[in-house]
Amino acid sequence: MSDAIKMREAHFPGRAPIDAYGNGGFRFADMSNRGSIICVPSGIYGLEMKTPVPTMEDIKHVLDEADKIEVFLVGTGENLLRLPENLRMVLRKKHISTDTMSTGAAVRTFNVLLAEDRAVAALLYAVE
């Protein structure tokens, strides 16, 4: 048996509103996550994002669950940054509308849409 510690992908199995953000992470469902997260119907996953602009790898959970998502919110930190054209096209082909905004605005919008039981997903870049 190996003594090595195995790291598992951070994952909360369910939908939950975001209770707080800042200090490099998020609080939700009486838990906290340091770093960025992606919220999809199957749960909330931790992300290792190098920049606030997502890559195709960062949105793989959204693509995997595209049939359950109508709206995809992207929180790009403190500044509003544009979603790359290739990602917008892939999401559009899957009939998912995207809205890019600051992380704070994305958290608030996600919580409202989640409370309305809408088919929403969100990628939230951690801010300090």
From TrEMBL:
One family name in Pfam for this protein: DUF498
CDD domains: Mth938-like
Protein name in the entry: Uncharacterized protein
The organism of origin for this protein: Bartonella apihabitans
